[in-house]
Amino acid sequence: MTTPPPSPGTPNPRILERVWIFVRDGMPSVGRYRRYLVALAGPLAVVWGITFAYLLFAPDRYDSRMTLILPGTGVGGSINLESIGQATTTTASAFSSPSLSPTENYKRLLTSDIVLRDAARRAGEDEGAFPAPSIKLIDQTNLIEIQMPAGSPERARERMQALEAAFSGALENLRKGEAEARENADAERIAELEAKVDEAQKALLDFQGETGLVSLDQFAGRVTALDQLKASERDRRVQLAESRAGAGRLASTLDISLAQARMAMRLKADPEFRDLLTRYAATAGQRTATGATLGDAHATMEELSVEQDALRAALGRRGAMVTGASGEAVLSFADLAVSDTRERLFASLTEREAGGAGHGAALAELRRQIAAKTDTSQRQVEQASRLASLT
Fold first, then answer.
1. In this structure, is residue 204 part of a structural domain?
2. Which of 159, 178, 197 is the last residue of a domain?
3. What are the beta bridge partners of residue 135?
């Protein structure tokens, strides 16, 4: 006999049968349930008792959190001083060193006894009862997370503020100590530099007082003066050669020596000699004219001859007195009666000769000064080198 299939929504008889078998044969007996409850009641009571006791008697805890961020760049400064130079200072950040962990240093400082005791005093608590903060370092950053516990929110905040103030005070003390150490080192260095500057200045003043060389510009001026002397010496040599050549050319043209030209000019400049020369020339001309019609034995010719001889003797005496030469030399001089043109040429010859003498004297003095400065030039170079090293 075939069992008809169940209609939709009706439970399968086989399933119901299986459930009934499980309930009838698989469920423990009621006595076994009682034993289970007795075995588990004790541990459950202890666990729940502890839980309720903790909830009832454990004190409340509140945490105050703070995050510190450390700077990663340093500071620097630069100053320019005219005629002195440039000074540059750079302070690298202590938190940018790859070989040190500044966050770890700050962590150690935050949990140090000095900071905790100071924070306890600032918070008005016992130093031994002040809790250590919980610190967490954030990897790959300069951040430090700080957590401070307390029994109330206000107390947690006060403790965190006290810890922050104590930490800042410790940092300030460390910075002051470092600044004082640097300042002392800088002061010692400055004192050392001042001593060296004073020593160098004293050596410079002693050198300047000993040599008279005050600056390198003064040495350059001395070198320039020597060059100017040499240039002047060259100019004087040219002028001397020009004067001598001109005087020689005039003397050759006039067929007269310089001494004779000077003698002629002196005689020409003496009024008495010129008067005697004029009378002598007139008498000589008259005698020549008279001698054309009268003989030498004539009385007039004899008078003129006597007068001419007397004037000639007077010319010799006056010329000797004016020039210092002998009377015969004066009378034998061919240029007694120089013309105005020849007189000007004589004057030019004399001037050129005098100019040549002046150029010669100036040239000698220039050569003397050049020789003196050349002898000391090597010593001046050494002095300038030493002055440069002192300055």
1. no
2. 178
3. 146
Range of the domain at 51: 15-58
Of 286 and 48, which is predicted with more confidence? 48
Which amino acid, 59?
P
Q: Give DSSP secondary structure letters for 320-344.
A: HHHHSS-HHHHHH-TTTT--HHHHH
In three-state secondary structure terms, 94 is coil
Same domain, 239 and 350: yes
Instruction: Return the half-sphere exposure (C-beta side, CA atoms, 13 A cut-off) of residue 146.
Output: 26
Distances (CA, A) of 203 to 39, 127, 213, 390: 107, 64, 13, 7
Q: Residues near 328 by Cβ (< 8 Å), separated by ≥ 6?
A: 316
Where helices occur in 58-101 by DSSP H, the ranges are none
Nearest to 264 by CA among 325, 311, 312: 325
What's the CA gap between 391 and 386, in Å, rounded?
9
Kindly state whether residue 25 falls inside one of the protein's structural domains. Answer: yes
**C-alpha–C-alpha distance, residues 197 and 138, integer Å:** 52
Digit-coded pLDDT (tens) for 58-115 = 677 888 998 888 765 556 666 676 655 666 766 655 555 555 677 888 888 888 999 9
pLDDT digits (tens, 9 = 90+) for 247-281: 666 666 656 666 666 676 666 667 777 777 777 77
Domains in the chain, number: 3
Query: What is the rounded CA–CA span in Å between residue 110 and residue 147?
Result: 11
Contacts of 243 (CB under 8 A, 6+ apart): 352, 353, 355, 356, 359
Residue 54 shares a structural domain with residue 112: no
β-pair type (134-137, 75-81): unpaired
Quote the tokens at residue 282: 């007139």
CB atoms closer than 10 angstroms to residue 249: 12
Examine the domain organization and report whether 39 and 102 are in the same domain. no
Distance CA 167, CA 132 (A): 13
Tell me, yes or no, whether 247 and 362 share the same domain: yes
In a domain, 311, yes or no: no
The separation between CA 262 and the C-alpha centre of its own chain, rounded to angstroms, equals: 67
Q: Are 47 and 104 within one domain?
A: no
DSSP-assigned letter for residue 26: I
CA gap 36, 39 in Å, rounded? 5
- In this structure, are 217 and 365 located in the same domain? yes
| 241 shares a domain with 103 | no
Q: Are residues 110 and 247 in the same domain?
A: no
Tracing tokens 């007077």 back to the chain, one arrives at 314
